[in-house]
User: Which sequence fits this backbone?
C-alpha cells in the first residue's frame, strides 16, 4: 500500500493502520506494482463492505457509521491510485498525500540505502 513514517515507539497509530484515511505519515511510491495491487484489492473489498453496510443501513444499528467509514476509505484510495496517472511525477518517486511540502521534498530527494522499510499494512 505504501510506506509509513510513523514512529510507533512514541505512540500507537491514530489511524488504526488505515493509512488512506488521511494519515500524514503515509507515503505512496509511483509505479510500485505491489502498492497499486494492494490498493486495488482494498478498494474492491471496501466497495463490497460498503454494499453490505448500505443494505443494513435501514436497521437501527451501527450501519451508518460503517457506511461513512467505507466511503471515507474509498475517498482516500482514489488519490493514492491517481499518483500512478500523474505525468508530472516520475516512477519511483515517494509522495505524501497529506503533506504537500513533504511530498515536494521527497520528489527532489533520491533515497540511497538504507531506504525506509516500515510499511503500512
Assistant:
Amino acid at each position: 500500500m505504501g510506506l509509513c513514517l510513523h514512529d510507533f515507539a512514541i505512540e500507537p497509530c491514530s489511524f488504526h493502520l488505515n493509512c488512506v484515511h488521511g494519515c500524514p505519515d503515509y507515503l505512496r511510491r509511483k509505479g510500485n506494482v505491489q502498492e497499486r495491487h494492494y490498493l486495488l484489492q482494498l478498494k474492491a473489498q471496501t466497495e463490497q463492505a460498503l454494499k453490505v453496510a448500505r443494505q443494513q443501513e435501514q436497521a437501527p444499528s451501527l450501519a451508518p457509521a460503517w457506511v461513512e467509514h467505507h466511503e471515507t476509505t474509498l475517498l482516500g484510495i482514489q488519490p493514492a491510485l491517481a499518483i500512478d496517472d500523474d505525468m508530472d511525477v516520475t516512477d519511483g518517486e515517494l509522495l505524501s498525500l497529506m503533506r504537500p511540502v513533504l511530498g515536494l521534498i521527497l520528489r527532489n530527494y533520491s533515497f540511497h540505502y538504507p531506504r525506509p522499510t516500515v510499511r503500512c499494512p
About this structure: The beta strands are 3-4, 26-29, 94-96.
